[in-house]
From TrEMBL:
NCBIfam families for this protein: quinone_pig3 (TIGR02824)
Protein name: NAD(P)H-quinone oxidoreductase
GO molecular function annotations of the record: NADPH binding; oxidoreductase activity, acting on NAD(P)H
Pfam families, per the entry: ADH_N (PF08240), ADH_zinc_N (PF00107)
Entries under SMART domains matching the protein: PKS_ER
Upper classification of the organism: Bacteria, Pseudomonadati, Pseudomonadota, Alphaproteobacteria, Rhodobacterales
Entry keyword annotation includes NADP: yes
CDD domains: p53_inducible_oxidoreductase
Keyword terms, alphabetized: NADP, Oxidoreductase
Amino acid sequence: MSEMRVVEISAPGGPEVLRLARRAVPVPGHGEVLIRVAWAGVNRPDALQRAGLYAPPRGASDLPGLEAAGEIAAVGPGVRGLSEGDRVCALLPGGGYADYALTPAAHCLPVPGTMGLKEAACLPETYFTVWSNVFQRGGLRAGERFLVHGGSSGIGTTAIQLARVAGARVFATAGSAEKCAACERLGAERAINYREADFVEVLRGEGGADLILDMVGGEYIPRNIKALADDGRLVQIAFLQGPKVELNLVQVMTRRLTLTGSTLRPQSDLAKARIAAALRAEVWPLLAAGRVAPVMDRAFPLEEAAAAHARMESSAHIGKIVLEVGSG
């Protein structure tokens, strides 16, 4: 096939700027594979890119879509360990909203156990993000108190499960009784409805959080610092309420706090390959055994990508939203 369907961003704006188009099927270069996409995950960075707030890195596809699952359609020079027909899920530099997508071979992972491609498409972006930030950067250990904001999101539902399996005491925030109940079913010791309770008071009452994973930012940042235990760590991965805030950093010094954070997409191919290798060794066995699993919200056909974005930006979802691209 020489052409494929894609979803383009016609101009910066709301979900309505996403449009179906046709482009040439890309050819894998050295160390790359071409994936015949069956399902593609929908994530917040896709919406930020669509709005003109998150430009793709140099050399990456301008199409949205940072994760997908499907079959290897072609392999580029220098690729070892992957062959045409292999079922994989993969972290993508972009381009997931299409029939075919390119990615470095080292960013591909096998579909765990008997999991379907629909569920596997929900793994890469969230699991790469949670593993690298909660465990590698945040250093979460058994017995520690862990707070994740946005507990019912794709990131949140993943973080709750992995932290629970690691032996941490897990706390989460969410915006409704339904979402809080979902967090507790996944293993949160307590889910805090932020419309009804102050997470700072709850965590301080437990001795403070040893680690907080936050994607809200804004006025949450000084509150997170108050909620931390002495020697606690705050890991920032997004800023839904904005990145700028006035802070009194005396607490950071006197209580020996650590403020850090990261974004996944701009990291080097080698850094992402190392995260993939760690996931394959440490987390993929948990997925294959059913000890952790993606939480699914809703699926949309590729041509309804705008509706998928509207669903995500409504914050009504619990878990992951996916696009059905091909069969699988």
